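Quiz preparation item.
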């Protein structure tokens, strides 16, 4: 079984070695920073000159070396918050995606053979689409400013902290965008499984076992068999014990539950900027979600995070502004692919 959480993803990255090129825009031209990871350790770029020398006074230009450093620091931040939604979503990456899309990517062919009699007509197949909202590509932005104090006092450590924070915030946003449609949906009776525990279960995970068993059964009956379970990490011990089975209750040994190939544990993210607190809610501890992945879930990527620099504002003693932006969208057909479970009594 594949367990997906921040801890397991970070552990997998510790065994990774590879090189990739990350685009950024410098003085109107697209450039690339080379990102190198060896055995999970990302190569960190160091400043070879004071930061003040890489920021032009009163102009819109910024050193290519500085922007390359920014991009790699942002990537370092992204390594700290891993994307967890990939087992659920297919990715459609196309720079030509329009702002509003019909769900053509969620279409599928439907065809059935029938016995043919003399004079009867052939039954032709059709194209069917997953039900879901119209998808929209949205623009997401974040930025920070290099002040005169950062430049004049050569506070490069603050630059690195700001850069890394942008990377962490961006990957946290990605997790939120892709899990929120599942966590905030209003589920009807057809997509709900109530708690199946009793006061006589003998152990907490027995009721959880029965609830998972009933939920899996319902997804099969309703022709949307689930293979992914989304839950809170707080419930990990009971969930994995329930799936393993082996507990003897009332003279019967509970067999392992089959069907779930991936468990994703997601507990959200919180950050404070100034006095404003931003919270991305995780999975509630009393809920879990059985999901049929891929077909009804699409990650729409027009442009991934791109870094650019802009002239500062002397009236606020700002030397340079660094802006990150991305064009992204999400399509999620919830009713046809998700079963909400209540996992506590």
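Solution:
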């Amino acid at each position: 079984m594949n367990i997906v959480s921040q801890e397991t993803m970070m552990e997998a990255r510790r065994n990774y070695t590879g090189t990739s090129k990350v685009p950024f825009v410098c003085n109107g031209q697209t450039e690339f920073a080379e990102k190198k990871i060896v055995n999970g350790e990302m190569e960190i770029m160091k400043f070879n000159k004071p930061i003040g020398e890489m920021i032009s006074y009163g102009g819109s230009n910024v050193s290519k070396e500085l922007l390359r450093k920014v991009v790699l620091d942002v990537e370092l931040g992204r390594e700290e918050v891993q994307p967890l939604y990939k087992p659920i979503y297919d990715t459609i990456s196309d720079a030509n995606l329009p702002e509003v899309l019909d769900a053509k990517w969620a279409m599928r062919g439907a065809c059935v053979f029938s016995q043919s009699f003399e004079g009867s007509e052939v039954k032709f197949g059709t194209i069917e689409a997953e039900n879901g909202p119209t998808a929209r590509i949205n623009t997401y932005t974040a930025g920070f400013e290099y002040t005169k104090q950062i430049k004049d006092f050569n506070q490069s450590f603050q630059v690195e902290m700001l850069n890394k924070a942008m990377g962490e915030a961006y990957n946290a946003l990605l997790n939120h965008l892709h899990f929120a449609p599942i966590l905030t949906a209003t589920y009807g009776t057809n997509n709900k499984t109530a708690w199946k525990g009793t006061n006589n279960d003998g152990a907490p995970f027995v009721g959880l076992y029965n609830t998972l068993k009933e939920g899996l059964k319902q997804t099969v009956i309703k022709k949307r068999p689930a293979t992914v379970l989304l839950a809170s990490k707080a419930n990990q011990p009971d969930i994995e014990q329930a799936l393993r089975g082996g507990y003897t209750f009332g003279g019967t040994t509970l067999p392992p539950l089959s069907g779930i190939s991936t468990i994703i544990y997601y507990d959200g993210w919180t950050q404070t900027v100034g006095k404003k607190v931003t919270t991305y809610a995780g999975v509630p501890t009393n809920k879990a979600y059985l999901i049929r992945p891929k077909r009804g879930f699409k990650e729409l990527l027009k442009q991934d995070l791109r870094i650019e620099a802009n002239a500062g504002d002397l009236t606020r003693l700002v030397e340079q502004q660094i802006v990150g932006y991305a064009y992204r969208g999400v399509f999620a057909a919830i009713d046809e692919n998700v079963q909400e479970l209540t996992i506590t009594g």
